[in-house]
Amino acid sequence: MMKRRIYLSMCALSLCTVLLTATLIAGVIYVRFYESMKQGVRNEAHYIASALNLTGDRYLLAKRNAADTSRLTLVMPDGSVVFDSAEDPTRMENHLHRSEIDAALRTGNGEASRLSQTFGVTTFYYALRLNDGRILRVSDTADSVYTWVLRTLPYMLLAVLAVFLVSTIAAARQTKSIVTPINALNLDDPLSNVVYEELSPLLVRISKQKAQIDGQMRELLKKQDEFSAITGSMNEGLAVLNAKLQILSINQSALRFFGLPLDDWRGRHILATNRSAALQNAVEQAARGEPQAAQLSLSGRHYQLFASPVKSGDVISGLVLLLHDVTVRHEAEQLRREFSANVSHELKTPLTSISGYAEIIQNGLVKPADIPVFAERIRTEATRLVALIEDIIKLSSLDEGRPGVPNEPVDLLALSQQIVQRYVSLAAEKGVSVSVCGESTVIDGARPVLDEMISNLLLNAIKYNREQGSVEISLSRSPTQAVLAVSDTGIGIPREHQARVFERFYRVDKSHSRDTGGTGLGLSIVKHGALCHGATVELSSEPGRGTTVRIVFPL
Question: What does the pLDDT read at residue 513?
Answer without folding.
Answer: 47
